[in-house]
Design goal:
The complex is a heterodimer of chains A (about 350) and B (about 450). Chain A has about 350 residues and is of the alpha/beta class. Chain A is built from eleven helices and 14 strands. The C terminus of chain B is likely disordered. Classes of the chains: A alpha/beta (about 350), B alpha+beta (about 450). The interface between A and B is medium-sized, with 24 and 22 residues. Chain A: Belongs to the GerABKC lipoprotein family.
């Protein structure tokens, strides 16, 4: 009996302490949290401007609420927004961070580090550059994307609106680029579109967290397939035909001789013919695809070498050849000297549902 | 008058249904005693008459006739005589030499027929179920198991009020140490009185009473009982209880039915997997709702988070209160539908359906999603085998709901850990609850 009493007392003490010490009164239900999907960041006169796109639930459906504040830090701005709202702002669901072009040119290092440090922002969050002022852009978003709260993010979602000519870069990749000697990233650039959603303008070359140049969407496609991202589905337009890339594979071979890096790149593309103009032969289509891609690659490589921004991660293939002390000079010393032998092998897997004439 | 009869008359003086009739058998006076509510006196007398006539014709001596009629007993054994009378036997006392015979009379039909099971449904299996009569039950098991290795031990428990229990086991497959332990416990505590299974498990078997999961696995299907016997478990029958108690009970009894084996193997595996998933969902779903809605919404996809937030607009209570409230109503509905007679039962189902289905949501007391979660929980709770198991499962989900409300998704893990630890701590005389019953002749897959 005594033992039972003792046990009962112990148990109730444990349960009591559980209730008293757990801190569960701080839990907020999902309907009392605001879950911003997109955050826009700009820097004007040393003041951060933060714009949050928050899907608001209502009886009818989902409305988009755009709120902006300025602050000395991004966090201060977010706190100001949270103060002014009836619910608490919870950045856990942030999917997309939009940065103004000017701010990207000045350098993102500080904010990327703080995003990485913050516990409530996922390192998986996609980053993009907005090629206009944030306010008009978000005004446009609010007026044209209301039926669904996540439209902007869906444009970058791989199982939704993503296209192979768009680069897809996460915050952690930018962070890696800032701290790595041999790899940079490309960040997609967008702008409000005319009819409905957004215009995709290509990608920004990033060097040490700063935007240095741009590449076109076509070059981004090549960049994606070079990095092993699926380039499937893209229609390549030429003078005579357009083809659908079904599968691409890349092989690299690196050689380092007398302080000059050499790289052999072999890309194998399996394509299907979608559209032709006049009479073309498969030989001609093959030749044109190879030519056009080689030209594009050369153009992109030229930009990479002149801007010293290694978005293709070419330095990765020479890490074993260059001592660590000199590796920090990869971008400035070795990358401009890099010789690339680029070959494309095209296989026309099928002619579509009809034969080529 | 016969001393034994006198003693019985004194003992049952307040019972109107006790009779002591004086008769003459082969020129000697006898007294027939018994309860006319338990035995059919007219038919019994006719039977007796036939015996006596046959004895007269063949010239059988009286002592031989006594032996033919039934068990001859000593006049001093009044306890035995009393028990025989109470179990519906006829006591025949010979006045001249004072000897007694306990005879099996024609009983009054007080037992129901062997019927299909009521609490358990059978899918492609034998439809018999156990009944109240312990002899019928043992007989049914013998029909299922045509082997000379089935052993039956019967014990009368209690002094003031006697309960008959029988222990069945399959010799050669059962762990005899366990059987000796069981028999030892029954023998040791046979003077204690039992009225229900709680008392059986505490007073006779010596199991602790604060357990969530019974040490007896119950079944009312002879096929299942026979299968348990084949696997080396012991089966206990209690007179007047139409279920077989299987000891030791094991975790896998909750998921595996023997009649599953009448289906092709892949289908059997599918069914068993369904039951496992059902049990898991019952325990986890309510907790998951609470955790995802109030503690860790970041786990959800954004689209899901928004639509959940939308269903919760304007709901006054936090998720945990909402959940506990609705679970409580659901428990009430389940309990009420068991309690009510069959012809009023549908009313409860209907009223409950209205509450759960529409009214609560329209009144903005709980969210739509919660109703879906509740329905899924209740349905999956019923996939497992045996009502007593689903009860333990129903209780254990509250642990997870509370832990989830405090610690979120991590709390679900902690709650599961607590439940697993508890289940793992259970054992029956050293046989662990989560163990597999593995005997040498056992077929695979449970």
């Amino acid at each position: 009996m005594k033992r039972t009493l003792k046990r009962g007392a112990g148990l109730s003490a444990v349960v009591g302490l559980l209730c008293a010490l757990c801190g569960c009164w701080d839990n907020r239900d999902i309907d009392h949290r605001s879950l911003p999907v997109v955050m826009g960041v700009a820097l004007h006169d040393d003041l951060y401007e933060v714009v949050l796109q928050i899907p608001e639930t209502s009886q009818k459906g989902i409305d988009i609420r755009i709120i902006s504040q300025t602050g000395k830090t991004i966090n201060q701005a977010v706190d100001k927004i949270s103060e002014r709202m009836e619910t608490s702002v919870d950045l856990l669901h942030l999917k997309l961070i939009l940065v103004e072009t000017e701010y990207a040119r000045e350098g993102l290092t500080d904010s990327i580090s703080s995003f990485m440090r913050a516990r409530d922002i996922s390192p998986k969050t996609i980053i993009a550059i907005c090629d206009e002022k944030l306010d008009p852009f978000f005004d446009y978003v609010a007026s044209s994307m209301t039926p669904k709260g996540t439209t902007l993010y869906d444009c970058f979602e791989k199982n939704a609106g993503w296209n192979p000519q768009m680069s897809l870069t996460r915050i952690w990749e930018v962070y890696r680029s800032i701290h790595s000697y041999t790899r940079d990233v490309a960040i997609p650039i967008i702008k409000s579109g005319r009819s409905g959603t957004i215009d995709y303008l290509g990608s920004a070359l990033i060097k040490n967290g700063k935007m240095v140049d741009r590449i076109s969407p076509e070059e981004t496609l090549l960049f994606n397939s070079f990095n092993g991202q699926s380039a499937q589905g893209k229609i390549e337009v030429m003078d005579h035909a357009s083809v659908l890339i079904l599968r691409s594979s890349v092989r690299h071979r690196s050689k380092f001789a007398h302080g000059t890096p050499h790289l052999d790149v072999r890309i194998t593309l399996k394509v299907s013919i979608v559209e032709t103009k006049g009479s073309v032969t498969s030989k001609l289509v093959k030749k044109e695809v190879e030519e056009i891609l080689a030209k594009r690659f050369d153009g992109m490589l030229h930009k990479v070498q002149t801007q010293e921004s290694d978005i293709l991660g070419l330095g990765q293939y020479f890490r074993k050849d260059i001592p660590r002390a000199q590796l920090r000079n990869w971008r400035t010393e070795y990358l401009p000297k890099l010789k690339v032998d680029f070959k494309i092998n095209t296989i026309i897997q099928n002619d579509g549902n009809t034969k080529l004439t | 008058m016969h001393t034994l009869i006198q003693e019985m008359k004194n003992k049952f003086s307040g019972d109107d249904d006790f009779f002591a009739l004086e008769e003459t058998f082969m020129d000697s006076r006898v007294v027939l005693a018994g309860f006319n509510t338990l035995l059919d006196i007219a038919t019994t007398k006719l039977g007796l008459q036939a015996y006596i006539e046959a004895a007269v014709l063949t010239g059988t001596a009286r002592d031989e006739l006594k032996a033919e009629l039934g068990e001859v007993c000593d006049r001093s054994d009044s306890a035995k005589a009393r028990l025989s009378l109470l179990t519906g036997k006829l006591l025949i006392c010979f006045e001249d030499d004072g000897s007694c015979v306990i005879m099996e009379p024609t009983p009054k039909p007080l037992n129901r027929a062997i019927e299909p099971p009521i609490n358990e449904n059978v899918f492609q299996g034998s439809l018999n179920s156990f009944t109240e009569d312990i002899h019928a039950n043992i007989g049914i098991v013998r029909k299922q198991l045509l082997t000379d290795n089935l052993r039956v031990g019967s014990y009368h428990i209690g002094t003031e009020e006697t309960t008959k229990i029988s222990l069945l086991y399959y010799e050669g497959r059962t762990n005899m140490e366990f059987i000796h332990k069981l028999v030892g416990q029954i023998q040791k505590n046979r003077s204690r009185q039992i009225e229900n299974l709680q008392q059986l498990s505490k007073k006779i078997m010596g199991f602790p009473s604060w357990v969530l999961i019974s040490k007896f696995s119950q079944t009312e299907l002879p096929q299942e009982a026979a299968n348990f016997l084949r696997k080396g478990r012991a089966v206990l029958f209690i007179d007047r209880l139409p279920i077989a108690l299987v000891v030791p009970s094991l975790l896998w009894d909750v998921f595996f039915l023997d009649s599953d084996r009448n289906l092709p193997l892949p289908l059997m595996l599918f069914l068993r997997a369904l039951r496992l998933i059902g049990a898991w969902l019952t325990v986890v779903l309510p907790g998951l709702y609470v955790a995802l809605v109030s503690v860790n919404p970041e786990v959800l996809r954004i689209e899901m988070a928004i639509s959940i937030a939308q269903t919760r607009v304007g709901i006054p209570y936090p998720a945990i209160i909402e959940m506990i409230l609705m679970l409580f109503i659901l428990e009430l509905i389940i309990e009420a539908s068991i309690r009510l007679p069959k012809n009023i039962g549908p009313t409860i189902t209907m009223v409950g359906g209205i509450i759960l289905g529409q009214a609560v949501v329209q009144a903005k007391l709980v969210s739509n999603l919660l109703i879906i979660i509740l329905a899924a929980t209740t349905i999956s709770n019923s996939t497992i085998v045996g009502l007593q198991h689903s009860l333990s499962l129903r209780i254990s989900k509250y642990v997870i709901v509370i832990m989830a409300a405090i610690y979120g998704v991590l709390g679900i893990l902690e709650g599961l850990l607590l439940i697993c630890a508890y289940v793992a701590s259970l054992n029956t005389y050293g046989i662990p609850y989560i163990g597999f019953s593995s005997k040498k002749d056992e077929i695979k897959h449970g």
